[in-house]
Each structure stands twice: as structure tokens, then as C-alpha cells.
Design a protein that fits this description.
Strands 1, 2, 3, 6, 7 and 8 form a 6-stranded antiparallel beta sheet that branches. Strands 9, 12, 13, 14, 15 and 16 form a 6-stranded mixed beta sheet that branches. The chain is built from 12 helices and 16 strands. It is elongated, with a radius of gyration of 35 Å. The chain is 35% helix and 24% strand. It is α+β, with helices and mostly antiparallel strands.
């Protein structure tokens, strides 16, 4: 420990004077000799960094004000001893390096463990301490060490003062983004469970208004309009109403009880257009129970009926509303320039699952697939989307938002 690993008999001052501020220097490794210490016999090395500040700043408290002044500076060197593993600082020196011919390196500060470790912890936590603050803050070093050693301890801090942490998060733009994406991931897990877990879906039906299966999906999309708003089309869709996706669009409707649309949406942009969506369930049959002719499977009554339902809803809405709909403020006045156009509006029917097109052993049933795809691709209105396709599109959207390399398959 008394020798310098850079070379026996070499003046440490000469080395300190010759080092470049743009470089960090590390000595060759050597076994540390510290009896009665866990470091004894372990590999260690010195790390050096020199600094050439143009001036030195001093701060003195006079009364209630700090007086800051500058004076000419020289070279300083920080020397650290690390042992056993990277980043484990066992001792630290802050040294004044004289100009050539003006003396030897002078140690101004020497910290051993545990003080050296506390200084390192301080430097690590500086990024977490905001510059602005109207109140003084005191944090125990033991708490800082606990957070670094066990991030789960943050849960205990949250329980002690949840409002403070909520405020910190609400003030952090990136944190809000993470929370939004985390919430959406959770909703996609629920979406997937509704599709794949029959017992879970049936339990949700029991809690739904009128115990209707469609009501389960209606409520889910009410809570998560982004699932319909992003994946259905290349344009961004938003709910026409902030309160409810389902709207009456003919009879006593959005313009003046009649025809209802399960989801009334509109495109975003300078010019907005109305978009209709009808929502069935993932269990709704896509094809009839038997072939009409060999290799030809007709659409199920539910699919054909859903198509007719959407077409009728859109037709009546266009006839009653006209080419465009004026946005109305809460006080009943017109919103300047707030129009939603109804020029051949797009419409969607969300129904069934592509799993229905598989064979008994889970393989592709080509006749069923062909019959279904040819039917829906010939439809001008509405566009037919299955629930599993909607889930896949929503997962792709969230995956891209998180910056993943590739979307997860469902």
C-alpha cells in the first residue's frame, strides 16, 4: 500500500504532472494487503483522474447569504483505490498537484470506508435530486443504500406518502408515458383473457347489464376506446363523444330513440369524418354450421345480419344528418369550424374469431378460410374485423410505442 503500482522508485508527483485531463488512468492490478479485512489478498488497482480548473471557487456564509468568490487554480488529482469488484471504492484521495519544481503532491482529503462509499453514493444520487425546491429535504443514507440494494423498498416509501410520489410522476412526462403504456399492456392482457378464458368471460357476462354478452365487450371498449381508435384504420380514430362510445344515430339522435351504433367514432385531422362500428362477440359464428355446396360455406345468420344492421344504421344516419354534423358546445352553441362529415362514412363490424376457421385438429380449414375471406373482401360496407385481429393490431401498436424490435404473436 505504501508503494506506487506505477513503478517502484518513481516520483508520484512527476506522474501526476504528466497525466492528461482527457484521460482516466488505471494501474496494473495487484493483491491488496489489508489484514482483518475482507479485501485482504483480493485484486485491487488505483484509478487516477486529473483536473485543471481555470479558477477555484470558494463559498462563505455571511449572515443569511452565501458569498461566492474565485481565485487562481492549479492542478488537482483524484485517486481512488478499487478492490474485489468494479466500482467498489475502498479509499479515495483528493490531491493538489504543484507545478514542476514547486513541491510534491499534497493530499487535501483522504476518505476510507465507509466514508468513501458514502461519497460515491452521494454522486450516484445527484441525478435524483431536482434543482428546484421550496423546502429543505433530508434523506437518510440508509434509505438511499436500501433503494440501490433493493428497489422493492420503494413500495414502502409509496405506502408512507403516496400523494408525494403521485405528484412526482404526474410532473414527469416520460413517467406518464410509461404509466399509459403499462396500463394498455394490462388492458391487452384482459382482452386476451376475455378471448381465451371461457370461465372468465362468462363471469363477466353475469355482471353485465342484462347479462348480455355484447355488453361485456361494449363496456371493455368504453373503457379502452384507443383499441378501436388506432387499429381499425390507417387514420387515427377518436370517440365522437367524450362520455359514451354507443350513440343513437337515427330517430331522436345525435342531431336532435332510434337506430344505435355500438361505437361512433371519427377521424382526426383538419377535416373529420364519421366512422361507425358495430360490436358483436368473439363467440358469434362467422360461417353457417354446414356447407351450402361442396367447399362453399355461407356466412352465418349472425354475420349476414350484422352486415345488414350496420348498413341500415349508416343509411338512416346519413339520411337524417346529411353531409356533415355541427359540433355543439356544452351551452348549446355551435363550435366554430367544428364539423364532422358524413360523406360515405366508413363502417366496421367487429365479430367472431379466426379460430372458428380451423379444423378439428387445429389445422387450417382451407374451404372455410376461402369462403370467409372471399365474402368479407367483396363487402363495400362494412369492413369485417374479428376480435383476435383487433387484439393483434392493438398489441402491435403498443409494442411499437414501447420501441420493441418486433411485435409479440398472439
Amino acid at each position: 500500500m505504501n508503494g506506487d503500482p506505477w513503478g517502484e522508485g518513481v516520483d508520484a508527483t512527476t506522474y501526476a504532472q504528466g497525466r492528461l485531463p482527457s484521460r482516466t488512468y488505471a494501474s496494473a492490478s495487484f493483491p491488496i494487503l489489508r489484514p482483518n479485512s475482507a479485501d485482504n489478498g483480493q485484486p485491487a488497482r488505483f484509478v487516477y483522474k486529473v483536473f485543471d480548473p481555470e479558477a477555484e471557487t470558494t463559498a462563505e456564509l455571511e449572515g443569511e447569504q452565501w458569498l461566492v468568490s474565485e481565485s487562481p487554480a492549479g492542478r488537482y488529482q483524484v485517486k481512488l483505490l478499487i478492490a474485489r469488484e468494479a466500482g467498489n471504492v475502498r479509499e479515495l484521495w483528493v490531491q493538489r498537484v504543484p507545478a514542476k519544481g514547486q513541491g510534491k503532491v499534497e493530499t487535501r482529503l483522504n476518505l476510507r470506508q465507509p466514508e468513501a462509499g458514502r461519497l460515491v453514493e452521494l454522486l450516484r444520487t445527484l441525478e435524483c435530486i431536482p434543482v428546484d425546491g421550496e423546502q429543505t429535504v433530508r434523506v437518510d443514507d440508509s434509505l438511499v443504500r436500501e433503494l440501490f440494494a433493493n428497489p422493492e423498498s420503494l413500495a414502502r416509501i409509496y405506502r408512507e406518502d403516496p400523494s408525494r410520489l403521485r405528484q412526482l410522476i404526474s410532473d414527469d412526462e416520460s413517467a406518464r408515458d410509461v404509466i399509459a403504456l403499462t396500463h394498455r399492456r394490462g388492458q391487452l392482457q384482459k382482452f386476451r383473457r376475455l378471448l381465451s378464458d371461457d370461465a372468465y368471460f362468462d363471469a363477466e357476462v353475469e355482471q353485465a347489464p342484462g347479462k348480455r354478452r355484447e355488453a361485456v365487450w361494449q363496456k371493455f371498449f368504453e373503457d379502452n376506446p384507443w383499441i378501436l381508435g388506432v387499429p381499425l384504420t390507417g387514420q387515427l380514430l377518436t370517440s365522437w363523444s367524450d362520455q359514451k362510445l354507443e350513440q343513437v344515430v337515427a330517430g331522436a339522435s345525435v342531431v336532435s330513440v332510434g337506430k344505435r351504433a355500438d361505437a361512433l367514432l371519427r377521424t382526426s385531422g383538419r377535416i373529420k369524418s364519421m366512422v361507425f362500428a358495430e360490436i358483436k362477440t368473439h363467440r358469434t359464428a362467422l360461417l353457417a354450421a354446414s356447407e351450402y355446396r361442396s367447399g362453399c360455406w355461407p356466412p352465418s345468420d349472425e354475420l349476414a345480419g350484422g352486415v345488414a344492421q350496420v348498413q341500415g344504421t349508416v343509411h338512416r344516419a346519413v339520411n337524417e344528418i346529411g353531409e356533415r354534423l355541427q359540433d355543439v358546445a356544452p351551452d348549446g352553441s355551435d363550435v366554430p369550424g367544428g364539423f364532422t362529415y358524413m360523406l360515405k362514412p366508413r363502417a366496421f363490424l367487429v365479430i367472431g374469431s379466426l379460430d372458428q376457421l380451423l379444423g378439428q385438429d387445429g389445422g387450417h380449414h382451407r374451404d372455410r378460410i376461402r369462403s370467409f375471406e372471399l365474402y368479407r373482401r367483396q363487402l363495400h360496407e362494412p369492413e369485417v374485423v374479428t376480435f383476435d385481429e383487433l387484439l393483434a393490431r392493438a398489441e402491435w401498436h403498443v409494442t411499437m410505442a414501447e420501441g420493441d424490435v418486433a411485435p409479440r404473436e398472439t
